[in-house]
Amino acid sequence: MSLCGSFLSDEQFQCSICLDVFNNPSSTPCGHSFCMACISRYWDGCKVCQCPLCKKTFPKRPDLQINRTLREITEQFRCMRGGGGGGGGVMGGAGMERKRGDRGNIPDYLFDELKKKFPGALPKSPETLTYETQSLENDPSPQLLASSVPNDSPISALKRGSGPPLPPPQPCQPSSRRRFTMSGAASSQSLAVCEIHHRGLMVYCRTDRVCICPDCEAEQHQGHDTVSVEDEWTETRSQLSVSVQEIQEMIKERIRKIEEIRRSVSELEVAVERETAGSVSLFSTLVLAIERSQAELMEVMEMSRRAAEHQADAMIRQLELEVQELRRRESALAKLAQSDDHNHCVKTFNGLSSPPPTKDWSGVSVTSDLGTGTVYRSLVTLVEKFQVELRNVAEKGFPAVVLEPSPVRTQPRMKRVQEYAVDVTLDCSTAHPRLILTDDMKSVRCGDRHQPLPDNPERFDRVVCILGSEAISSGRHYWEVEVGGKTDWDLGVARQSINRKGKIDVTPVNGYWFLSLRNKNKYAFRTEPSTDVCLTLRPHKIGVFVDFEKGQVSFYNVDAKIHIYTFSDHFTECILPFFSPCTNKSGKNDGPLVITPVNATE
Fold this sequence. Notes:
Layout: H1 2-5, E1 25-27, E2 33-35, H2 36-43, E3 49-50, E4 57-58, H3 68-82, H4 108-117, E5 131-133, H5 154-160, E6 178-180, E7 203-205, E8 210-212, H6 214-220, E9 226-228, H7 229-338, H8 342-353, H9 373-396, H10 410-418, E10 435-437, E11 443-446, E12 466-467, E13 476-482, E14 489-495, E15 512-518, E16 522-525, E17 531-533, E18 541-547, E19 552-557, E20 562-568, E21 575-580, E22 593-596
Antiparallel strand pairs: 1-2, 3-4, 5-6, 7-8, 7-9, 10-11, 11-22, 12-21, 13-18, 13-22, 14-15, 14-21, 15-16, 16-17, 18-19, 19-20
Helix pairs in contact: 7-8, 7-9
């Protein structure tokens, strides 16, 4: 042991806290050793315990115990250091010097003793120290092959050539080769450590498919198919390229599927655009044709009514003349019956008794033919044509190329009315007290409570509405209002002289012409009675067009470019834009009405 002690240095038994030789050494769970008192003081007052060397933290303060084996070795080291010669410390002294040409050997017994007594001085990672003892006949000076041993280990002292002369080596067989391998407790960050034996996991058990340390192999995996981790990895690496190719192929397959899905989405978007354009065109044509037929019906019936009135007036005037003549003769005959002049009675009786020239009215009547048959037959033909086209669409779909819109479609009309766009703003002096306006007077919504506003004559006090600032007395005007996702609203125009106080009957007779939405899907025009309208495409922006001279107020679905309805009346005074966001219905209808700039539709 005196020889072994000479290989050690102070650093091997030094506490990194007090920088002195261990006093009652204790080891932390991470494998580092300190004086029991030093590490206890170091952790006192700390919320989280941490190793001073590797900085590993422990959720709970470890319950440390004195490492008795290390304490015994430390005590032996103290005794050996006290008896050592002077010079370079424990490792110094003249007896430690070696000649340059003397390359001494490490005997087997010395190596075994070092392995048993000084495990802490061995490498902390599972590296291998190999000592090859060759025949004295081939090489009288075998050398130490320990390049992987740390410089601060006792074995490295032998490599550097320091230390006392070694005893003569034991004789061995010529040409024989012996290999010694020893592995210490692994602490390398790149190698896993066995939680039980604190040694590197260098062995792979193929039976259990788990990495183990040599001690685990000896204790728990006897008779199992075990190889070194390096050999297992060498064999596994040959399969790596196959796995990589399979994964790459799976990646390519999924990338192709992603591209396929994206193409499907793009094709679907194109199909939606085509279907939307085709359906809007198809139904717009039908709607316009029906509206045109309805207008023709109204005109034909009005003409028939007027013709019947003229005919009836003529017949009535003629009948009244005949009745007047008959009453005159009736009166003359009554006077003749009372006359005493017999000669006069005889002379005039023949002229009065013969009936006056009258018309035979038995087969005469006012015509009941309204002349609408032609219009209806034309509409039937149009509907039949629409049905044929609708069947073709149902069977074949819309063509990929949409034809240019025909003159009857709404798109040109939409563009024409947008040419009369005007800048419309809200008149705050007319706003109901619950209405909240933006600073630019372009947006209005209904609040939860009344605001303290003056009750001027122009202000609505019961109906939640507001008028525009720009009066319309001539010409053509157009503006657009965004209605968004509101459930209720009113939009249109109103006479300047309308009543604004109390309950209001909002009808054209009372000076209101507007379109209404109720309960999110019920559209109606405030006529008398109310006129319901079915809109298949819910509008998000409404266009309002006024032709003052023609007395027309028209409404458009801006997004779909569809004409919705037109009021026809006669304006006798100025009219103003009319807006009503309606009540907010406890937040369900709190969205605003927004007057937006007009972007001409292409």
